[in-house]
C-alpha cells in the first residue's frame, strides 16, 4: 500500500508507490511537464490541465518530486497537451522524454556513464527504470555485438506511451554514453514489453 501526505494545497499525494496502481515518479513527471512547456508553450499545457476532471487535475497539481503519480493520470494529461497544441503526441513525445533524461544523466551520472561499457550501462537500466516507475521490472541481456534485449514484465495493461518512454530511455542512456546509431524497438506483451536494442561502438 502507500502512505498519503497533503500537498501545499491540501490535496493528498502518494509518497510511496502503491504497487497495485502503476505510477510514475513525481520528479520525472514535473521534469517532463517543463519540457512540454518548452516544446508547445505554456498555454496549451495550462488548457490541458483545465480540461481534465477536477479530481484528476487536483492529483496532478499536487505533484512534488517525492510523490508517485498514477500513470493513467499522466498519460491523460500528455494526450490533452497534444490535443490542445494540435499535434500528434507520439510524433514528439520521444523528444520530450529524451531531453529530460539527457538532462538527468549529464548532471547526475555524468562521469559514471562515460566510463561504462554497453553491458554495464544496460545492467543499470533496471535501476534507472525503478526510480521512475512503481510497476514492472526490466531485465536486460547482451545477445551479440552491438545488440541487446530487455524484457519488461509485471505491468498488465501497460500503455504504448509508457513503452515508448522506456524505449527512449534505453536509447538515450546508450547515446549519452557515446554509443552511435542507437535504436530501440519494442514488442508489446500482455504484461509489459520486449525491447530490442542495437548500437554501434
Describe this entry's structure for a reader:
The protein is an alpha+beta fold and 201 residues long. The chain has two domains: 4-91, no CATH class; 94-200, Muramoyl-pentapeptide Carboxypeptidase, domain 2 (2-Layer Sandwich), CATH 3.30.1380.20. Helices cover 50% and strands 23% of the residues. The chain has eight helices and eight strands. The radius of gyration is 17 Å and the shape is globular. Residues 1-17 have low confidence and may be disordered.
Radius of gyration: 17 Å
The order of strands across the largest sheet is 5-6-8-7
User: Structural class of the helix and strand makeup?
Assistant: alpha+beta
| Helix count, DSSP H or I runs of 4 or more residues | 8
Number of DSSP strand runs: 8
- Enter the CATH topology name of the largest domain: Muramoyl-pentapeptide Carboxypeptidase, domain 2
Under CATH, the homologous superfamily of the largest domain reads: Trafficking protein particle complex subunit 3
Low-confidence stretches: 1-17
Average of per-residue pLDDT values: 86
Number of domains: 2
| Portion in beta strands | 15-25%
Shape: globular
Looking at the overall shape, the CATH architecture of the largest domain is 2-Layer Sandwich
Amino acid at each position: 500500500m502507500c502512505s498519503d501526505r497533503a500537498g501545499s494545497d491540501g490535496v493528498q499525494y502518494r509518497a510511496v508507490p502503491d504497487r497495485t496502481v502503476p505510477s510514475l515518479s513525481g520528479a520525472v513527471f514535473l521534469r517532463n511537464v517543463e519540457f512540454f512547456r518548452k516544446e508547445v508553450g505554456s498555454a496549451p499545457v495550462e488548457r490541458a490541465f483545465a480540461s481534465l476532471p477536477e479530481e484528476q487535475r487536483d492529483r496532478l497539481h499536487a505533484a512534488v518530486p517525492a510523490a508517485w503519480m498514477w500513470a493513467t493520470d499522466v498519460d491523460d494529461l500528455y494526450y490533452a497537451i497534444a490535443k490542445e497544441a494540435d499535434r500528434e503526441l507520439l510524433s514528439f513525445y520521444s523528444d520530450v522524454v529524451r531531453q529530460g533524461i539527457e538532462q538527468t544523466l549529464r548532471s547526475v551520472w555524468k562521469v559514471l556513464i562515460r566510463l561504462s561499457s554497453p553491458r554495464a550501462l544496460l545492467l543499470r537500466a533496471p535501476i534507472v527504470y525503478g526510480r521512475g516507475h512503481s510497476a514492472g521490472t526490466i531485465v536486460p541481456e547482451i545477445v551479440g555485438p552491438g545488440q541487446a534485449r530487455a524484457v519488461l514484465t509485471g505491468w498488465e495493461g501497460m500503455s504504448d506511451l509508457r513503452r515508448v518512454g522506456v524505449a527512449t530511455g534505453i536509447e538515450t542512456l546508450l547515446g549519452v554514453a557515446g554509443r552511435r546509431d542507437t535504436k530501440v524497438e519494442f514488442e508489446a506483451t500482455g504484461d509489459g514489453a520486449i525491447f530490442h536494442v542495437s548500437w554501434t561502438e
